[in-house]
Predict the structure.
Amino acid sequence: MKITVIGSGYVGLVSGACLADLGNNVLCLDVDPRKIAILQQGGVPIYEPGLDQVIQRNVAAGRLRFTTDVAESVAHGLIQMIAVGTPSGEDGSADLQYVVAAARAIGRAMTEYKVIADKSTVPVGTADKVRAAIQEELDARGLSHSPAGKGLEFSVVSNPEFLKEGAAIDDFNRPDRIVIGADDERAVKLMRDMYAPFQRNHDRLMVMDIKSAELTKYAANAMLATRISFMNELANLAEKVGADIEHVRKGIGSDQRIGYHFLYAGCGYGGSCFPKDIRALQRTGEDFGLPLKILQAVEDVNHAQKNVLLQKITARFGNDLKGKHFALWGLAFKPGTDDMRDATSRVVMEGLWAKGATVTAHDPVAMKETQHIYGERADLRYAETPLDALPDADALIIVTEWKAFKSPDFDAVKSRLKQPVIFDGRNLFEPSSVQEQGIEYHGIGREI
Ligand SMILES: NC(=O)c1ccc[n+]([C@@H]2O[C@H](COP(=O)([O-])OP(=O)(O)OC[C@H]3O[C@@H](n4cnc5c(N)ncnc54)[C@H](O)[C@@H]3O)[C@@H](O)[C@H]2O)c1
């Protein structure tokens, strides 16, 4: 099948490469000429484990190409998959300008039937906006569909994406479910055909109305974020009452109705999805006269939690951190990605800098992206290895739970730090085993 993917970011590139891997002929479009140039030269502009190999083998097989040429991309795919960004607008609502621009471009250039599949995370009602934008462009070209059958037909479907950065290839290839929101059979049939190879083992495809599909994606992210904020709030209570949140986590996760996933206390969630999606869903609630009180609490708790490490640091070292130096492990918002959007590391570093401290940071893949965001500055240095970040530091701060941080040589850590103090924002270690090494340990929800 010929497929066009509009937007070659984390979702678009993974979707395009994985669909090409199944034998489809995929053309990925982006408006960013820098990204497309990197891809055309055999590189990959983002870090996602395994993505480079999938791209390379499909480019070599002639099934995957990249372009900035809109006319070419519209002509190519029977299915036009929109995977552009939907960042937060000023009022918290999802900014749909890129989605609508992509729709208009299709309307301006299409010359035959197309299915427009919205993979971007978009609020309820967006499919109608996409349909209207395309229709306006067709009307302007005198190509409206009429009972006489002269004009051009198209279908708009919602096809939200649930992949996780860091495990995106696996998630795309083995999805828990594939959601299709549609109101016409022709489009459903084509989407079923496209996803047929994912269905071999069992039926994962759920067809529903468009609005339910659009809401499903937000509901999923809102539920996951709620679990995180719930555990973070309980972790803070655990500290006050002298309990250990890790014991509590195991105690409740063993209940099959609750389960262990997404139940870790930590220093707050970030990333390209949860923060903006929570805000967008809240905004939808307000627009419909139904403020979502639970989500407001989720957001407030997370905002506070991103400052918890700073609070612990100032409680230990005082509010004035001039002359203090910190080692920081983990910049990316989570392991397995170089994505720094809304990362907790940014809140921690900016807070430390505002109080006069300096930082040496290490991250396995996100240092380049961090440099891109902050540029050269005297109060931020980078270390090539975790241990190289430690010399002269008054404490080690752990912000991202990369595997490589989980079993450090504590002797080496202790001997390099100026003061043997660890602030562990992800509860990577057992407090007693760190303390036995003569290291002062501060975790989340386990100050017992
Ligand atoms: N990143 C994730 O883990 C994830 C998971 C599920 C869903 N989503 C959703 O998928 C969407 C895309 O997210 P992402 O992380 O891939 O974003 P991204 O910022 O990595 O990529 C979006 C790309 O779209 C391009 N673009 C913008 N306007 C365009 C246009 N008119 N034509 C062609 N290209 C255009 C941008 O240049 C950019 O490269 C968002 O709605 C997001 O919420 C993301």
